[in-house]
Amino acid sequence: MEDFDYLKSGEVYLDAACQSLRPRPVIDAINNYYTRHNSCGERVKYKWGVKTDELVEETREKVLKFLKLSPRKYTTSFTLNTTYGINLILSQIEPKHFDKIMTSEIEHNSPFLATMAFSERTGLPREVIKRNEDGSIPISDYDFKKAIVVVNAASNIDGRRLLNIKDLTKAVHKAGGILIIDAAQAMAHYSGILKGVDVDAICFSAHKMYAPSLGVIVWRDELDSLLKPLWLGGGMVDDVEEASFKLSAEGKEHRYTRFESGLQAWGEIVGLGAAIDWLEKVSKKDWQILENNERELFDFLNSSSKVHLINHEPNATMSFYVEGLDSHLLGGALSREDIMARTGYFCVHYYLDHVMKMPPLVRFSLGLHNSPEDIEKVKKVMANVI
């Protein structure tokens, strides 16, 4: 795509699951913030600050519109990343409202470790549930009574998706629990499964959806009654006396401050707004190119008996190992050919190492910046290796 014209000829970036590249409109939006209205949001009255406030508020609205969630029921708050967002929510939940916390076996360490820490801190039992090959959860196998359920919408190892997210949401709510979704891997290419779904919170990383490094929490306003403020500071209160304070979050207009202590990354927030605009304008042709690239690479990897591919179907994220070859050495060899791919366990140590008993893997994660020529180069280099 022309919006990634800064890529040098022959460079193939295949680590979008970690951090996507940024298209020109997003880079321009960030540059405009720093060169035209660099200012603190929500604190100043001069015109630069007014402009920043307008763009930040627009981004909050764009996030909800992108996910087709009502601003009357949901709030957008900005954080550092998905890990930070999940931990921030769990650190403020009062355990007296729940009986247990649940997560799944294929989770990134973000929810996996955060739920472990929550259980240790509160004394509530923790349950690790299984996922089907297609990413769905066998709902009838589990009791969600008064449970905090924290699971991903899409896996960062093979992209499998929580296809029955609507049924899971209903089951958890019917049982008196809440559902927190790790949407880090879904927002860029598979946001459709999230749209309009009545979950309690969605945490994601903007830097995985063609935006700057930023975290986002989209949360149901009703969640506020289950939280006890833990981190307090600038921008979170309307008034402070010697031994008391009034939270801004007590009113709907500034409820987002519940998770926003101190100054925020204003330029990055503006950049996220530009990224959402950009994603919504991506043509069907470009989406088709990405889908074709996924199929071409999947078929190639799946055709060799030496390649052990985790994926059961094409996806923008594919993980594998080559029989008899150290994945880290392979990653280094690919790098020397200007092919950038991730190696290791991708922060999914429990599932890949201890459940599946797999060696370290190679992960190819594609994006809208990849061309058919990129895939042909990868196939050529990998054919030589295999």
Mind explaining what this structure looks like?
It is a single chain. By secondary structure, the chain is an alpha/beta fold. The chain folds into two domains: 2-16 and 283-385, Aspartate Aminotransferase, domain 1; 37-279, Type I PLP-dependent aspartate aminotransferase-like (Major domain) (Aspartate Aminotransferase, domain 2), CATH 3.40.640.10. It contains ten helices and 14 strands. It has helices spanning 24-36, 47-66, 82-92, 109-122, 165-174, 266-281, 284-302, 327-336, 349-355, 372-385, and strands spanning 12-14, 74-79, 100-104, 126-129, 147-152, 178-182, 201-205, 215-220, 237-240, 245-247, 307-309, 317-322, 339-344, 361-365. A seven-stranded mixed sheet has the order 2-8-7-6-5-3-4, with helices on both faces. The chain has a five-stranded mixed sheet with strand order 1-13-14-12-11, sandwiched between helices. A two-stranded antiparallel ribbon has the order 9-10. Helix 1 (24-36) packs antiparallel against helix 6 (266-281), helix 2 crosses helix 6 and helix 7 packs parallel to helix 10 (372-385). It is globular.
The name of the CATH topology of the largest domain is Aspartate Aminotransferase, domain 2
Q: What percentage of amino acids are in beta strands? A: 15-25%
Radius of gyration: 22 Å
Class computed from helices, strands and strand pairing: alpha/beta
